Amino acid sequence: MCGIIGLMAKKEELRESLGELIMPMFDCMAERGPDSAGLAVFGTAVEPPRRRFSLFSERNGYDWSGLARSLDTDLGCRAEIVTRDNHAEVIAEIEDESLRQWIKRRGNGVRVLSVGHSIELFKDVGRPDEVARRYGFSALRGTHCVGHTRMATESQVSPAHAHPFTAGEDFCLVHNGSLSNPYSLRRLLEEESLEFETDNDSEAACRFLQWRLRQGDTIEQALGSALEKIDGFYTFLIGTAQQLVLIRDPFACKPAVVAETDEYVAISSEFRSLAHLPGVAEANIFEPLPEQIYVWRVAA
User: Fold this and answer.
1) Closest-CA residue to 299 (of 12, 4, 2)
2) How far apart are CA 175 and CA 45, in angstroms?
3) Contact partners, residue 212, CB within 8 Å, separation at least 6
């Protein structure tokens, strides 16, 4: 039993209070997943060739300024850096793989959580409401976000195993459920030279979908392939730079509810986490159908 939450602000004024609106959702969903939590928020994109990286340190009080200086010294890369507790947002003109390999060589307990132009991602162990407050979710701004509260059932409790999972750029997935064939998916993807960071079944689903997108699929086509290849129970909520995407397995065993108004689209495992939203009493509220792909796009 885990909790998923998502929110897309259709109106500019709501984008300024995205974090404030998401906080009560974490409070409610903490009971569904007390082990760990995470949130991916999509905001104003940085211009290429710069990229936005979310980094996590296993050590409290990590010297993020020192990392930025070393990045400049070792790779000649000037970085902007903003820190929140064990997390740092780094904006720099560097390729994803180059940064990952540099961090790996340093071996200092820092890992890359996400990369892209719009995405910023936080995740850690602990009660979701406490994680949300520690990382200042209420102050976050953006067009849309995807969150998760985890109750571990098949793999360890750690920041790496927490959701959202990411693959590629500006792409993340949260999952409520359990997959029965994650290792066959892993073998398929490893034959395509994809690497995994955990043994979590949700990571296999995330990397499968991103792999299909890299083959030229649309998100709808990638999810169509997932319905054929992925076995198990799942509600997947996906975030990209411009989209929120939702799908449930053919049996729709895992709960989900959507509330949509002219101002927002809100998604959760339970309605009670949506009850605080403005105008929710007049919203179009529905339970997503099994195997139906729902896509909401950010308005210009």
Assistant:
1) 12
2) 25
3) 221, 222, 225, 226
Question: What is the Cα–Cα distance from 175 to 179, expressed in whole angstroms?
Answer: 10
Query: Which amino acid belongs to residue 7?
Result: L
- Tokens representing 285 are 């509220």
Count Cα neighbours of 52 within 13 Å in the Cβ-side half-sphere.
20
Rounded Cα gap, residues 219 and 224, in angstroms: 9
Tokens representing 91 are 């904006």
- Distance, CA of 199 to CA of 222 (rounded, Å): 22
Which residues are catalytically annotated? 2
Tens of pLDDT, residue by residue over 208-244, are: 999 999 999 999 999 999 999 999 999 999 999 999 9
C-alpha to C-alpha distance for 208 and 142, rounded to whole angstroms: 27
Do 31 and 275 meet the contact criterion of CB atoms below 8 Å apart?
Answer: no
Q: Give pLDDT tens digits for 147-190.
A: 999 998 878 999 999 999 999 999 999 999 999 999 999 999 99
Residues 166, 113: contact at Cβ < 8 Å?
A: yes
What is the C-alpha separation between 196 and 84, in angstroms, rounded? 26
What structural domains does the chain harbor? 3-40+119-297 (3.60.20.10), 46-117 (3.30.70)
> Residue 58 phi/psi, 5° resolution?
-75, -20
Strand 36-42 versus strand 79-84 pairing type: unpaired
Closest CA to 199 of 179, 219, 213, 218: 179
The distance from CA 51 to its chain's CA centroid, rounded to whole angstroms, is 17
Tokens of 289: 């159908």
Question: What does the DSSP assignment read for 65-106?
Answer: HHHHHHHHHHH---EEEEEETTEEEEEES--HHHHHHHHHHH
Q: In the structure encoding, which two tokens stand for residue 222, read together?
A: 């990638």
Q: CA 252 to CA 273: how far, in whole Å?
A: 20
